[in-house]
Amino acid sequence: MSIARMQKILIASYHTEAADVLQALQDSGLVQIYDAQRAIVSKEWPQLHTEVERPKQIEDLSTKIDSAVEFLNQFSPKATFAQVLAPRAVVSEKQYAAVIRTDQSLQMLENCNELSSQLHKLRDQQEHLAGQLNTLLPWEKLGADLADLERFEKGTAILGLVPEKNLAIVSEKIKDFKAGFEKIGSKGSFAACVVITLKKNSAEVYKALRSIEFESVNLSQFKGTPAELIKNTQKQLQEIQQQIVDIEKQAQQLSKSRLKLQILADYYRNLLGREQTRLAVPESEKTVILEGWIKKHDLKKLQDILAKFKGTSLNLIKPAQDEEIPVEIENTRALKPFEVITRLYGMPQHFEVDPTALLAPFFAIFFALCLTDAGYGLMIIAFSIYLIRKMQGDKKLLWLLLVCSVLTLGAGAMTGGWFGDSAQQLSRIFGWTWLAKARESMMWFDPLQKPMTFFVLAIGLGYLQIMVGIITAFVHNLMKKEVIAAICDNLTWLVMLNSIVLLLFGSRIGLSEQTVSLFGKVAIVPAAMIFLFSHRQGGWGGRLGMGAYNLFSTIFFMGDVLSYLRLMALGMVTGGLAMAINVMAKTASDVPYIGLVLAIIVLIVGHTFNTAISGLSAFVHTIRLQFVEFFPKFLVGGGKNFEPLSNKYKYVYIKDEKQKEK
After folding, report:
1. DSSP secondary-structure letter at 386?
2. How far apart are the C-alpha atoms of 384 and 405, rounded to whole Å?
3. What is the pLDDT of residues 403-423, one digit of tens each?
């Protein structure tokens, strides 16, 4: 449970085998490789250069394959719930290799792209013809050839749409211009009209018609009568629709083999990543330089990999002064789920402490206290186990929920929470006294009857975690041999805060008055040290000013401790809402005939909702306590993730001969 020790390395490889070396490194997933801009070797040897070309051919092919997969997804059966949880197909190494080594998949890609292109064109045509048909339909009863309307020598035919409500006043508007008017058809709430007038009067007629919301329609691009054009357009639409159906059937048939394209997509995506890395690293005329980082305990593996390449050498180098070292945290299997919390906050810096082991017990306990219901713990346990068994990918969050829910089971039993007061209600209704006795035998206290016990528990755990944070900072400073910082910044607070606590509450735990008084005097020494030495830069005026401020910040520790009362608040709210759900269910059970069914529905929906909303609240507020109250006591953060070059799969999982997922 620590931050992995990193080693900076430099790999020099001849051009002839550099691609194979990079593939081996990518398959191993051990080495983070710097591009030329970040590599120190580029600054020390300016004569090194990088390729200016992009792997455009691979980029284009990768994009085409992804587009083809997305196209075929439209014609594949809808994903079942199980497929949503596990969307990637599991393939063997032999199956994967067989696909990428043959041209059959590339031919399938061409067929797929051809179908996609044809379908796109047909749908564009369909959309164009549908719009054309929509324009022509209101004019279906117009018997004239539309091309003839443009050939009048002295007259003009004005076609347009006018609101039905204004239809009666069209004649009145144009009567002064000796114009003719006829309604041809309708389009929704508009009437399709033809107005015939002399060309010399057309401008005035337009002006008059616009005053009654007349919208002109231009059909000059058409030749023939509207009825003929409509019939022809409908025929074309039917033909296009049939072609679309035929292509969709072909695509549906092709989608049955889309796994081949998915394998190809993952292969070329990883190939693209490798090529982009190769073109970005510094190189000379004959060699490629790979500068980067590896975990120290993986050095032997790397040496074994590179030993297969005669034109490649491995050198261990020192990082430059003030160079940022990438960070990776390593924990035991039991603690790995809690890395989710650490990574959400951000990586510690390479010289700091991995907080995962320190936060793990507190996080699990705090989550359990926020829920404080064994029934809800059982529900989340069942949900987590189901998803762990069915889901693919990183399952740390699910394991985290499972661990926290197991503790919730204990917290619920300790406080008597079993779906709220369901145990008491069932005991009362059915006379199951054994159930009430079993509940009471496991209880430590009832939060509703003894809220102060919950109060003291929350405050005590909060104070303990804050002390752990300060002690962690103290020990870490000692390990870095920063003794002054350890004493003035950490030990002084440990002594003073604990002395104040014992001064205030010592008599309640049985300490004598003399001992309590002694702790009051002891607190003066670290307080004076904080005032004098907590700020150690600048002149004494500034030091004392900041020292006074730091001493005043003692009150902030009180605020930090009081923040942990949210454990009590959320725990009691969860229990209160669960009891309210039980009351609603009991009320619903009194409804004649369907009361039992209604009660069951209220219980299932209500407790499921309460589990979800209370679980989310418990998770969020417990994270807040870690990030805001605990981590700042010893952790700065801001470390940069260790990101080795590795294969990444979007569509498939590759299993080796022993059926282990990669």
Report:
1. H
2. 9
3. 999 999 999 999 999 999 888
CA 409, CA 411: separation in Å to the nearest integer? 6
Cα(107)–Cα(19) distance, integer angstroms? 26
How do 6-14 and 287-295 pair as beta strands? Answer: antiparallel
CB 28, CB 312: distance < 8 Å? no
Choose among 287, 314, 321, 311: nearest CA to 45.
287
Q: Which domain holds residue 192?
A: 144-224
User: DSSP letter at 335?
Assistant: T
Q: What angle do CA 52, 58, 63 make, to 5 degrees?
A: 120
Instruction: For the chain, give the number of residues.
Output: 662
Domain closes at, from 155, 189, 224 = 224
pLDDT at 331: 93
Tokens at 462, concatenated: 């909060």
**Model confidence pLDDT, tens digit, residues 175-214:** 777 788 888 898 888 999 888 888 888 888 888 888 888 8
Does 541 or 10 have the greater pLDDT score? 10
Q: What is the CATH number of the domain that holds 196?
A: 3.30.70.100
> Do 376 and 610 contact (CB within 8 A), yes or no?
yes
Contacts of 533 (CB under 8 A, 6+ apart): 484, 488, 543, 547
| 44 within a domain of the structure (yes/no) | no
Say what the pLDDT of residue 1 is.
Answer: 55
214 and 342 in a single domain? The answer is: no
Asked if pLDDT for residue 301 goes beyond 60, the answer is: yes
- The answer to whether the beta carbons of residues 460 and 448 sit under 8 Å apart is no
* Max Cα distance, the chain (Å): 122
CA separation, residue 216 to residues 59, 130, 164, 193, 197 (Å): 50, 20, 15, 9, 14
Q: Which of 224, 250, 268 lies at the terminal end of a domain, its last residue?
A: 224
pLDDT-derived band at 151, boundaries 50, 70, 90:
confident
Read off the pLDDT of each residue in 603-629 and give the average, rounded to a whole number.
95
Mean pLDDT confidence for 3-22: 94
Nearest 5°: the CA angle 608, 611, 617 is: 145
Average pLDDT value for residue range 643-652:
93
Does residue 336 carry a pLDDT above 90?
yes
Domain count for the chain: 2
Give the integer Cα–Cα distance in Å for 580 and 35. 60
Of all residues in the chain, the percent with pLDDT exceeding 90 is 56
Name the region of 318 (left: φ>0; alpha: ψ -120 to 50; beta: rest). beta
Q: Of 66, 507, 483, 418, give the one whose Cα is nearest residue 265.
A: 66
Contact at 8 Å (CB) between 48 and 282? yes
Domain annotation covers residue 365 = yes
Q: Residue 14: inside a domain, yes or no? A: no
- Assign residue 627 a region: left if phi > 0, alpha if psi is -120 to 50, beta otherwise? alpha
Question: Is 107 part of a structural domain of the chain?
Answer: no
Residue of higher predicted confidence among 461 and 169:
461
Residue 660 has pLDDT above 50, yes or no: no
* Position 408, amino acid: T
pTM of the full predicted structure?
A: 0.84
Distance of alpha carbon 540 from alpha carbon 551, whole angstroms: 16
Burial code (b: 16+ CB inside 10 Å, e: under 16) for 116-145 equals bebbeebeebbeebeebbebbbbbbebeeb
